[in-house]
Each structure stands twice: as structure tokens, then as C-alpha cells.
Amino acid sequence: MALAARSYPGPLANRHAELSLKLAGAGVGWLDTLRADSAARYRATGLPTPKVEAWRYTNLKDLVGIDFASAPVVGDMALDSLPRASLLAVNGHVLAFVNGRLRPDLSTLDTLPAGVTLLPLSEAIHSDEQALSAHLGRLVEAEENPFVDLNTALMEDGVVLRLADGAVLDKPLHIISVGAVADTPLAFFPRLLAVLGRDARATIFESHAGIGEGAYLSAMASEIVLGAGAHLEHYKLQNESQSAFHVANTRVTVEAGAVYDNFVLQIGSRLSRNEVHTALIGEGASCRLNGAYLGAGKQHLDSTTFIDHAVPVCASREVYKGVLDDQAHGVFQGKILVRRDAQQTDGHQLNRALLLSRQAEVNAKPELEIYADDVKCSHGATVGELADDQLFYLQARGIDRETARGLLIEAYVQEALDEIGNAEARLPFQRLVGGWLKSRKG
Amino acid sequence: MVGTAETLEQVQAVQDQKYKYGFITDIEMERAPRGLSEDTVRFISAKKGEPEWMLEWRLKAYRHWLTMEEPDWAKLGYPAIDYQDSYYYAAPKSKDDRPLSLDEVDPELIKTYEKLGIPLQEQKWLAGVAVDAVFDSVSVATTYKKKLEEKGIIFCSISEALRDHGDMVREYIGSVVPYSDNFFATLNSAVFTDGSFVYIPKGVRCPMELSTYFRINASETGQFERTLIIADEGSYVSYLEGCTAPQRDENQLHAAVVELVTLDDAEIKYSTVQNWYPGDENGKGGIYNFVTKRGACRGRNSKIAWTQVETGSAITWKYPSCILQGDNSVGEFYSVAITNNMQQADTGTKMIHIGKNTRSTIISKGISAGRANNTYRGLVKIMPKAENARNYTQCDSLLIGSKCGAHTVPYIEQRNPTAKIEHEATTAKISEDQLFYCKQRGLSEEDAVSIIVNGFCKEVMKELPMEFAVEAQKLIGISLEGSVG
Asked: How far apart are CA A175 and CA A93, in angstroms?
């Protein structure tokens, strides 16, 4: 009898040698090495099966069954405008990517304030090489994550945002990634590198959406470095096509007194996994990892977070809420690690899920790993359906059952949106949540 | 053709082996040969005079075990176990091997017994001193046995049960924990040596707490125990396992299996105090305890409650579980796990809700001191047909000192929208205020810690039967000795 297999052969694993020659920056020594090392690791590890503890609730068998082509080898998509309705409606600097490649015609880069560098990755490789080589791949090298390795091996384009000490990004940066379905299932690997100096401030929005029906894989990797006292608001919408795969990995380090405020709304894709790992490495650092996922049809939406309290007196707060209809599957995995010396840690996590249908399913694994004694840590989780007494209360006031349900679900999701630190940023998310709820009623 | 030749060779080799060690092994031998093979399994089965089907079942388990991997998902670290470097069967020790009096026993052990207030005769029994079996508990046991027989209750060793109630054992053994269940349970299925069998007939309420303590022939608590308890319709039994006093055991590896079955309206309350040798303060020695405990609430309105106080063993890997099949059935899990020095515990429960209106409650208190690591790992699974199922889980961890670890890993799997699951976990430490308050009133630091920890565990301790509760409270204090100051 065969022993339990712990890995699938990874898509594109054997294509790196041929593909890498055409990638942006091919021939730049340190980048070639970084890509080749990642490719070798990816080839060796493959993609995890549910036998691997961290992937027990998300099975990639549908993903590995598809013969993806790396996007750059296919000709550019003719696409005249962005699918505005599927994106966050925010004003600011826009960098738009179609199938992982920058589209200058769809982007708007206004004059940047002093101390701010904002470049597409494909350009930064040449014009900002020194800074890039100092940071790219640094946050992810310590761990083995096949999707990050795949991204590093084949990344073609992305965003590099650097803020000098005290610099402030005047307007939000909106990163738009559109998957445009082609004849062949495409895979693309956007990359984000954000380095904020001491006391720098910025807001980043991300919108991920798709055009057309068909499979594609968007596997983004982000590295974010926050200097002491820096403040980053990072809000993301995952609204990919219904047949798409979305796997995103974000790694953040937060220095003393800095704040990382993160929110992720997942409503799109056939299968998604959004992983955010935050390391609080300076005293007084804090992070807020919040999110909501709304699933219907046969969607599988996975939110996985990891907070590493590495030093004393740091705070983390986490609220994730999910609503699942039809045969949708939701997964929440949230781990808080408090290291030996991280005394006076304050860590709180709450995850709640609402099931609207008999076939919907949710799996949750909140986790505390604590090695310091003077800490306040807690997590809470609840799963269930809408409370009958609340429905009754509204119906007793003359509201029909369907409307009452809608109101209660909306209020339930609103609680998660309220966790977004920047109140203005809640509005574009509210609009999308409202749209999702409306589509449920029809 | 090459393949055929190889096959023939292999068959021949197997045949030769059988001839060499096979069925003609000397039954009078005291020990099975070192290591694990089909012959070891046959030896054990023959020694016990088991029926043919039992041997077949053991062999099936053994063959399956060979295909399995030792699990590595628990938060435990220990050197690799060499399963071939151990004896799987030894006849009960003769008196000559045992200490002749308490003077020959480790004085530390005696000190602990005294603190627990254990009578001298029982101290000898626990320490394995060769005594003629005439002290109090024996006569008590005889009286008990008579009472049980009157009610039609069967309470005996599993070997006796195989002899006298074979059909019943055959029907139920492996029905809750199949032979292929997990690495350690499968190993147990192949080589289990003894354990208890309990059957409570329809409508009978067992008049006393049943305890291995009173089962005379249980003095050799086995390395691979197998316990099977069946509560027939409308019956009730409370079963106590282990005892508060530290027990000596030569075997480092323990892999027990406990199976419980409740039919309609029946209830089993299973309480454990586990205090095997935890190793010294540097983590040398100590028992590895890999236990599979599972109860099936087969009948409507049935109930299984697990209560455990885990203070011993170097490694604890244990997840007493309830399969809530019958409609309206109830599962409960109350646990106190204390780890000190270098101990590691990864323990929790699984509540599998299958039937309608099934309810489960999980209360877990983990206390970690010294350089120990204590993990709660629990699964709550709601199957699609479990209408209106309810679960409430509360996991609290207490850390004493800055070198230990306390971890919580709940798994929640929800597949029915009408079910409700609530989970809460907190982590805290003994506050300076609490300590100061107690010390100011003249309590020593150690007594203060003991009182505070007992308060922390109160929700679980009150679930223990009276016989256990008092001693268990003292035990908590003793387990944490040296953890402060």
C-alpha cells in the first residue's frame, strides 16, 4: 500500500529553464540566481496535498489538473477598458495589470511626492536595482512556500513602492490585477514590494478581478517592510472570475511602533487562498488583520493568517467573518505565536461564520502558540445560521422574511467592514458586499 | 519469469520462517522474544488462549500497522521509537523480582505517597512490593464482585471476557476504534495484553464506581491495555481509571485503547487520573503515553462523559472522543492537563455530531510550568444530518514561569447550518495580586499556587467522582512543586 502522498507535482515546475530567459530582468545576475533557486525548491516540493497539516482543508487537486501556460508566452490581450464594476471604486495612483503585465494605457501615475518611489517591477529591475536587490525575496526566503517560490521563479511584473523616512504617499495607490481569459488557461505571478521608512505613511488598495469565463491562476506574492513608526493601510478585494484560482501570499515585518492595518474581502474565484503572515519585530508594533469572505455556488474560499509576536509589548487584533451559501466552502486558519520573550503581548482573534444553505460548509482552525507567561491572548469562534429570534423580531415589525434575512446578513458583514481602520475605505467594500447580497436574492 | 521466481523465493522464505519460530513456540516461556513480528502476535494470542478469530484480527491489525506511518502532527518532540527494541509480552513478574519491602523503594516515591495520604498497605501495592494479596482492597473487591453479579453486571479482564463472553467481545471490539484507526491504536490491536471488560445490562444502574483499582488481577497494568465498556439500554455506569498515586512501570511506551458503547438512554461516565512517571526535571526517563479513547453514543438520548486529570507521563498524546450517533445524545469532555519540568502534553477531544439534537461540551484547562509544553487539540465536527446540534468549547491555559509553552489548536468543521458552535480560548498567568493575597494570609508560596490552580480547574474537578476529587486536588499541588520561587 502506498504511503500517503504529501505533494502534487507543481504546474509549470519543469518549464522554468525555458521561460526564465524571456522574463523581465533575465540576465541580471542576482535575480537569475534568486529565480533559479526558487524554481529548484518549487520543483522539489511540488504543491501540498491535504496530508500536509497547513493544507488539510484546501485541496489543490483541481488546480494541479490544469495545464497552465505562463502568461507572458501568450500574446497580449486586447482589452480596452477595465471592468470597473468588479473593482474597488477608489481614486488615486493606479497601476493596472492584465494577466500579470503592466498596461501603461490603463494606469495613471500622477506626480509623486518627495521621498516616494513608485515603479512597476519590470522597470525597477533596471532603474532601482540596488534597492530591489536589497529587499526582493528577503521576507520569504526563510520559509518554504511553494506558491511563493513559484511566484519568485516566474514573476514578470508588479509594483515597487518605497517611501523614505517621514514620506507620505499623498493619495492611495490602487493596484488592479485583471485576469483576461484566453484560449489556454494562463498563470501569472504579480509581485508587490513595499518598503516604508521611519514614520512613513501610505494606503494601498488592491482589486483582483477577471474578464470572461474560464480558468486562470493568479498567484501573487507581496513583501512589505514597515520601519519604526510607519503606518500602512492595505485593503484588498479578491473578485476573480468564477472559474479562476487565486493564491496570494503576503509577508509583513513591522518595526517598533509601526502599524499594519489589513483588510481582505474575498467574493470571487473558484478556489482561493489568501495568506497573510505578519511579524511584529519591534516593541509597540501592532497589526490588524481583518477580513470577510462571501461564498456561493461551489466556491472554496480560504483565509489563512499568521501573527508572530516576536518581541514584547506588541498588539494584534483580528476579526474574520464569513457568509456561505449554496455549496460553498469556507476556511479560516488563524495562528498567533507568542515567542519566549514577547511579554505583555495583547493578541485577540475572532472568527465567525454564517451558513445560509444546507450544503455549505465551513472549517476553522484558530490556533494559539504561546511561550511567554505575561500575555493576554484569546480567540473566539462561532458558527451557525441566522438567529431565529432576530428574524422574528424584524418580521413582527412587518418586514417580510426575505428582507429581514437580507438586513441581518448585511449587518453581520458590516461588523467586519467596521474593522477597516480607515473609515472612508469602507465605502467601496460596502458597495461590493451590497451587490453580492443582491445577487443572492435573485 | 523472473518475477515468478522471486515470488516463489519469497513464499519459501516465509514458510521457512514459520517453521523456525511459528506455531510451536514454547508456551511456557515468560517472555515473547524481543521485537515485533507476526510471531510475537501469535505468541501473545496463544499465551492468552484466545479464540482463532481474535488472532486473525490481531494479525490483520499487525499487517496494517506495517503500512502505516507514525503521526507527526502533534506538537511533541521525542527521539524516534524503535519498535523492534522492546518486549511485547512478559508474564506477570514473579515475587522474586520485586522489592521485598518499602525500604527498597525510591524514597521520593514514598514521600509522595505520604503526601497523598495513601495507607501503608496500598503504598506497597502501588510500589510493586511483593505482598501476599490479603490486604483490605482484596476483601473489598470480593464483596463488590458479589454485588455486581447480583445485578448481572460483567466486570472482568478482557482475557476472561474473551473466554467467557466471547460473542459479546467479538461484536463490539474494534467497533468504535477499528483495528486500522491510527498508528498507535493499530499497534495496540495487534499486541494488547490485557485490560477491562464491562457490560451493564438493560436498565441497570451500576451501584458503585467501577475501578481497575479493585480488579484484583489488574495489578500488572499493561503497556498495551484494551478496555471495552458496553452500557445496554437505560443503564448507567461510572468508571474510574488509574489512580492518583504515581505508579512505577518499567515500560516506556504505552499505547492503550478504550472503547465505550452506549445504547438507548444509557450513560457512561469515564474518569481518569493519569499519573505515570513523568521523568526527572531534565526530561530523562518518563512514560510515553499514546492513548486512543473513543466512545460511541449509538442509542437515542445516550451520554458519554470523559473527565481526565493528566499530570504524569513525559509525553501525552490523547484525545478522548465521542461519536454522537443517536439522536439527542450528549458528549462531554472535562480535562485538566498539567505539565511541569520537561513534560509535553498534546491532548484534547473530538466531538463528532451525526445525530439530530446532539450536544457536546468541552472544558479544557491546561497548566504549563517549568520548561513544559501543553497543547489543547480538539475537533468539533458537525455532519450534514446533525440538525440543531450544539457545541460549547472553553479552553483556558495557565502559564507558570516564562520558560513553558501553552498552545490551543481547535478544529471546527461545520456542515449543517442549523447547528451552533461556540469556541473560546484564553491564556493567562497567576497574577502577583493573587499570590500576594494568599501569602499575606500566611500561606506558603506553594500552597498559594496550589489553591489558585485548583480554583482555575474547579469546573473540571467538580466533575470527578468524590473518591478521586480529594486526592486529585492534592495531586495538582504536588505536580506543580518547584514551579515557583
From this structure: 8
Interface membership of B431 toward A (CB under 8 Å): no
Q: What is the ipTM of this complex?
A: 0.86
- The pLDDT of residue B477 is 80
**Of the candidates A126, A146, A187, A199, the residue with the CA atom closest to the CA atom of residue A10:** A146
Q: Which of A68, A396, A76 is nearest to A247 (CA)?
A: A68
- Smallest Cβ–Cβ distance between B402 and the set A359, A367, A372 belongs to A372
Q: pTM for the whole thing?
A: 0.86
Q: Does B67 touch chain A (CB under 8 A)?
A: yes
Q: Sketch the domain layout of chain A as residue ranges.
A: 2-386
Strand partners, B399: B368, B429
pLDDT in tens, B330-346: 999 999 999 988 999 99
Q: Which residues of chain A neighbour B77 with C-beta distances below 8 Å?
A: none
Going by C-beta distance under 8 Å and a sequence separation of 6 or more, which residues neighbour residue B232? B199, B200, B201, B202, B203, B204, B263, B266
Cα separation of A422 and B203, whole Å?
64
Nearest CA in chain B to A359: B415
Distance from CA of B340 to the nearest CA of A (A): 14
Mutate to test the interface with B, among A368, A378, A390, A408 (most CBs of B within 10 A): A368
Nearest CA in chain A to B414: A362
What is the spatial distance between Cα A79 and Cα A56, in angstroms, rounded to a whole number? 38
- In tens, the pLDDT along A60-95 reads 999 999 999 876 544 455 677 889 999 999 999 999
